[in-house]
Design goal:
The chain is α/β, with parallel strands linked by helices and 233 residues long. It is built from nine helices and nine strands. The strands form two sheets. A seven-stranded mixed sheet has the order 3-2-1-4-5-9-8. A two-stranded antiparallel sheet has the order 6-7. Helix 1 packs across helix 2. The longest helix is centred in the N-terminal third of the chain and has 15 residues. The radius of gyration is 17 Å and the shape is globular.
């Protein structure tokens, strides 16, 4: 995750480590979409920026990639280490800070899954990701869908404020910024990336077998937005 203010620490980190493995939003919507956009990764050196509990890292490793994972939460990194062992290089790192552990143009690709909306210094993060990616390298990024946030919070679609969303346990909240599609696209393209693909992922059909109501809802209403961006060669 990201900075000390917005990262998932302690009990919140433990909660999300379990949720990421079982939640239909993660297991049946976002993660399949991100992995599909990443494509063939065997032999590539990838950065998992905001690796959380290591679910994406583990899948990328299983597909033959070499992975460096970073996260601002020691709690989530503990879960990631339990999941992937010594197969990946895992670092405690604040995504609000420069990626000073990496040289220029060292990674073939990067994944930034469901963390972008938690980051305040997004322009710097994008500049750093572009710096550490080789020419022609790619970034797969997913975030909450602007329409989903509008449906959930109400009010104006163009509301760009930071919000604190409550979880089923009211003692825990998560903080992130609402953004429009236009704002997202302007940030990504202004950072010098080229848009290759944009998807609004729908759930895997297998979700229907275990939770038909959730499956129908996710087929009707967007939840996430995922893009594949490329550094010009």
């Amino acid at each position: 995750m990201t900075s000390p203010e917005n990262a998932y620490h302690g009990r919140l980190g433990d909660y999300f480590a379990g949720l990421a493995g079982t939640s239909p939003y993660n297991a049946c919507v976002d993660r399949p979409a991100v992995l599909d956009l990443a494509g063939e990764v065997a032999g590539l050196w990838l950065l998992d920026a905001g690796c959380g509990a290591g679910h994406y890292t583990a899948d990328l490793l299983d597909r033959g990639a070499r992975v460096t994972g970073i996260d601002g939460s020691a709690t989530l990194l503990r879960h990631a280490r339990e999941r992937v062992g010594d197969r990946a290089e895992l670092r405690l790192h604040d995504l609000e800070a420069p990626l000073d552990f990496a040289g220029d143009a060292v990674f073939d690709g990067a994944v930034c899954a469901l963390v972008y909306h938690h980051v305040a210094a997004r322009a710097r993060l994008l500049a750093e990701l572009r710096r550490v990616l080789r020419p022609g390298g790619w970034l797969v990024l997913s975030t909450t869908h602007p329409t989903a946030e509008w449906l959930y919070h109400g009010g104006s679609y163009f509301d760009g404020t930071w919000v604190d969303a409550k979880l089923p346990d009211p003692s825990m909240t998560i903080r992130y910024q609402r953004m429009t599609l236009q704002a997202l696209m302007e940030e990504w393209l202004s950072a010098g990336f080229v848009l290759e693909r944009l998807v609004e992922p729908r759930p895997l059909p297998r979700l229907r077998e275990t939770d038909e109501a959730r499956y129908e809802k996710l087929c009707r209403e967007p939840s996430f937005l995922a893009v594949r961006l490329r550094v010009p060669a």
